[in-house]
Structures are given as structure tokens and as C-alpha cells.
Amino acid sequence: MNDEIRNKMDSAAPANVWQGRGEIKRPTEARIPLMDVSALSEEQRTLAGIGASNVLRTLAHRGDLMTAWLEFGGHLTTGGRVPFRTRELMILRVGLRSSCEYEWANHVPGALSAGVTASEIEALANATGSWSDADAAVLNLVDDLCADNCASEKTWKALTATRDEGEIIELLMLIGFYRMNAGFLNSLGVQAEPGRPRLGQSMSYEAPAPSRRPASTSTVGAPSEAKPDGIWQLKFYHPAATQELQLVMVTRDDVLSGTLTNEAAGITVPFSEGKVNGNHVTCTTVMTKPFPVTITWEGTIDGDFFAGTATIRDAGSFPFDGTRVG
After folding, report:
1. Distance between CA 237 and CA 214 in Å, rounded?
2. Are 228 and 322 in contact (CB under 8 A)?
3. CB-side neighbour CA atoms (13 Å) of 120
4. Span 115-129, pLDDT tens digits
5. Are both 26 and 141 inside the same structural domain?
């Protein structure tokens, strides 16, 4: 399957609509060298393999601060009440307001996976578009805090009309966290990973077409019962990047168990709640480190071909497919 992300960026970045707020030119190269991957701890290597490699390899120079930063950021992003889509819109707005290319580049794919459209991302960058009352209140809150560190009375009234007190406090913490991030990312000159959009640019994400079983895995007739046992080489299609995964499934006494491995990230986790119903298979993987992530895998086995959908709790559903290799 072809990579479903098509980068529609021009080679030259468009003018940032927020430029003019500050006169300080952003560094075009890192001011502190990236820590070599071989020097990272096992947990740090795992984190760098998942994403945001450059910021983690920079912060690894102060591992104690990185640990505290990850704990607070993880709580805000995985344990909060603010919807995923709202959070990503807000982070993109902070990135624009702070002229932070890394923050923008790293969260455009996240926003797409949260259901934000490419046209909405373009509207953020061009200061155009029509927003719901709830979205407008959050975007105005970002603008107020970036301009003068306080929500205006007008913004506050709009927030209280669409959010409860706990959500408003969380929004303020989130904005503060990503404003802090923008400050050290800009100052340290942390550069975006290759292939990510420049500040103010968008990407488009098109979900892959329904997968078809390769001819080499064909069997006569439709299978009535899946035979999941074996080693499966899978591709997981996410807006940020397509990931190569290995799934090992074993059936004993009608109980399905196994493991899922992301070799690039150095992660192997067992799965639970494995079930087989005809040729339909479901299971759940729970990752607790470096941060908690629960994914439900649901798909159909057809001979030696397995395809379906992986649902990341509070972060969207994405397709996967692959074949049995052993």
C-alpha cells in the first residue's frame, strides 16, 4: 500500500501570519547537539523511536528534567478531559503564536489523526475560517495568553458558556505547557524531523482504501473460521508515519494470546482479551511505559492475510494490514 500521507507543501514556506510579534530570528540549526542514540537509556530510546526524536535527544542532556517534563506532559495529554481534537487545535495555535516550527511540524499529523481537516489547519495558518463557539473560545484564549498572559473578559464569558471549570483550568495548563515548550524548542534550535510541514503549512491525510488480500495468500472459498496462530508482519497506517509491527498469536484451549512488537521503537507488549469469532479477531494491547496507551485491534483473517482497524483510546482509529510470515 502506498504511503497515504501526501505532503502538499511548496518548497518555500509561506509567510507566517503571526510574524511581527517578535524580532528574534529563530535558529536554523541546533544550538545544543543531539544526544547520540547509543548514549540514551532504554526508556529514552523507546521514546525517541515513537516520535519527537529530536526534542527527546536534546532534553536527554538533562535526563532528570526530561523525566519530570514527560510526566507532566503525559498527564495532560493522556489523563485529561479536554478532547483530543480541541487539544491539537490549541497546540497548533500556540505554535503559530510563538513562531515555533517544531511544535507546528510535530502536531499537524496529530491534528489530522484527531479529525482536524487540512482546510481547518490552513484556516488556522491564514487566520481565516469559521469556528464553532467552543473552538473559537479556545483559540481566543491562546491569543489572549500569548499576547498578555490573561484571558479577556470576553474570552472568559465564551469559555464559561462552553466549558466547565475543570476543563478551563486544564486548558490554561495545556496552553502554558506548550508555550513553555515553544520557548525552549525555539531557543535550543530544535529542528523538525524530515518530511514534516514547515510553520504555517498543512498536510493532507487520506485513509487507505480497503485492503485486498494478495493473490499469493488466496484460498478456495471464504474461510469460516480464522486460524490466527503464527507470526504476522503488519503495517499500521497513521497520519504521522506508517509503522512496521510484528504480531505473534497463539491459541491454547480456545484462548487467544500473544505479543505485539514495534522493533523500531524497541517495544514489545502482550495483548489481552483475545477473541476469535469465525474469521473475525479482536485483541487489546496496553502499553504502560513510557506512557499509557490502550489500543484495540479488530480485523478479519483471510487465509494468510489479516486486515482491520486499530483504535487508540481517545486518539482515533486507523487501518492496518499484513500477512502471516511464520
Report:
1. 18
2. no
3. 22
4. 888 889 989 988 777
5. yes
Q: Of all residues in the chain, what percent are helix, strand and coil, respectively (each to 5)? A: 40, 25, 35
Say yes or no: 313 and 267 in one domain: yes
Q: Tell me the pairing of strands 255-262 and 242-252.
A: antiparallel
**pLDDT (0 to 100) of residue 21:** 52
Q: What residues make up the domain containing 289?
A: 221-324
CB neighbours of residue 217 within 10 Å:
13
Q: Is the pLDDT of residue 191 over 90?
A: yes
Are the beta carbons of 283 and 276 closer than 8 angstroms?
no
Residue with cell 487467544: 256
Task: Specify the 3-state DSSP secondary structure of 77.
Answer: helix
Q: Which of 180, 205, 230 is the last residue of a domain?
A: 205
Q: What is the C-alpha to C-alpha distance for residues 311 and 201, in angstroms, rounded to an integer? A: 27
Averaged pLDDT of the chain? 82
Last-in-domain residue among 142, 177, 205: 205
Q: What is the pLDDT of residue 8?
A: 35
Query: Does the residue 70 lie in any domain?
Result: no
Enter the pTM of the model.
0.75
Q: Tell me phi and psi for residue 312, to 5 degrees.
A: -90, 125
Do 20 and 137 reside in the same domain of the chain? yes
CATH number at 163 reads 1.20.1290.10
By the 8 A CB rule, do 92 and 142 touch?
A: no
Work out the angle at residue 154's Cα, subtended by the Cα atoms of residues 116 and 176, and round it to the nearest 5 degrees. Answer: 55
Cell (9 digits) for 183: 520557548
In a domain, 97, yes or no: yes
pLDDT of 22 > 60? The answer is no
59 inside domain: no
Tally the residues of the chain: 326
Q: Looking at the structure, do residues 181 and 233 belong to the same domain, yes or no? A: no
pLDDT at 26: 94
User: For 54, what's the count of Cα atoms within 13 Å in the CB-facing half-sphere?
Assistant: 21
